[in-house]
Amino acid sequence: MSPRRDQYGARRPARRRGRLRVLGYAAAGCVLFVVAAVVAWYIAAGRLKPPGPTPPPGPGRPTAQPADCPDVQMLVIPGTWESSATDDPHNPTANPISLMLGVSRPVQQQFPDQRVDVYTVPYVAQFSNPIAFPPDGQQSYNNSRSQGTQRAIDELQQMSKHCPLTNYVLAGFSQGAVIAGDIAARIGAGQGPVAADQVLGVTLIADGRRDVGPGQGNPVGAALPGSGAEVSLRGLTVPGITMTGPRPGGFGALADRTNTICAPGDMICDAPRQALNPVNMIPSLNELIHSAGNPVHAKYASFVVDDNGTTATQWTAQWAAGLIDGAPHPKHS
């Protein structure tokens, strides 16, 4: 084989050919590295993991329950960046300005532990930006939401097994409202960890799956025409973010006991329908991610929901206290 020559007929130096090979190998290596990084990103971001089927409540109930059982358990689920997987569920301190502390603390102060167990679900409560570079180091929405859902269901199951006569109040904010609403929908459909007739009520503040229509709960304050971001972005799936749309069938048997609170202009719960278009994926994701920190979404502690000047957190605390005050007093063995 004759040696390679350049455009002027001169022989091409072997050193140059070797350098080109090295550059080619380096380029191929970079491509493989990028592909591996993307695959690792997809795996780490995780898919949304719906909880498995929960066993139906056993037939009949006893006439009394153990002495250490509360009459009511209030399950509180904080929003994004307002909890931690290692937080103390009975004395949460992960975020001292967590919105749901404005609900849980007044209830804890009003009632003794024997009357109500206020349990704040500890979970990672993060929402990573999948298009951030470099990565922001947070857990994905799918991983966070899956963990929060499973931990809440596990707690309800354990309480129900040990305390079969205890009743329940559920409340959540933002990502926590999505989780609480999903669990309420399962209970309302007869597929939850506790029986529907043991749930005294549910309140969801800034629910990302908020919808309007039959079975979708009762709006507190003005009824808004928009919907949750997950409804507007239904069907959008990117690494770590699955927009699940509205809840099929709404809240079922709990529809008349479920309340929704949403401030006008809060894109998490009051997004114009189809405004967040999955076709325009990157702008839609930016809009969704930045909505979690917008001024409207962050000010439910001052958002007034009635003519008496009651704020969203005050209303929810008063609502919960009223349910607890009027709840049955089960016998204890």
Quick description:
Helices cover 32% and strands 12% of the residues. It contains seven helices and ten strands. The strands form three sheets. The protein has a six-stranded parallel sheet, with helices on both faces. A two-stranded parallel ribbon has the order 1-10.
Please tell me about this protein's structure.
- GO terms for molecular function: carboxylic ester hydrolase activity.
- Residues 50-60 have a biased composition (Pro residues).
- This is Cutinase family protein.
- It comes from Nocardia stercoris.
- The chain crosses the membrane at residues 20-44.
- 32% of the residues lie in helices and 12% in strands.
- The chain has 2 domains: 15-45; 69-327, Alpha/Beta hydrolase fold, catalytic domain (Rossmann fold, 3-Layer(aba) Sandwich), CATH 3.40.50.
- Helix 2 (101-110) runs parallel beside helix 7 and helix 3 (141-162) packs across helix 4.
- Helix 2 (101-110) links the parallel strand 2 and strand 3.
- Mean pLDDT is 85; it is low at 28-43.
- The radius of gyration is 26 Å and the shape is globular.
- A 6-stranded parallel β-sheet has the order 3-2-4-5-9-6, with helices on both faces. A two-stranded parallel sheet has the order 1-10.
- By secondary structure, it is α/β, with parallel strands linked by helices.
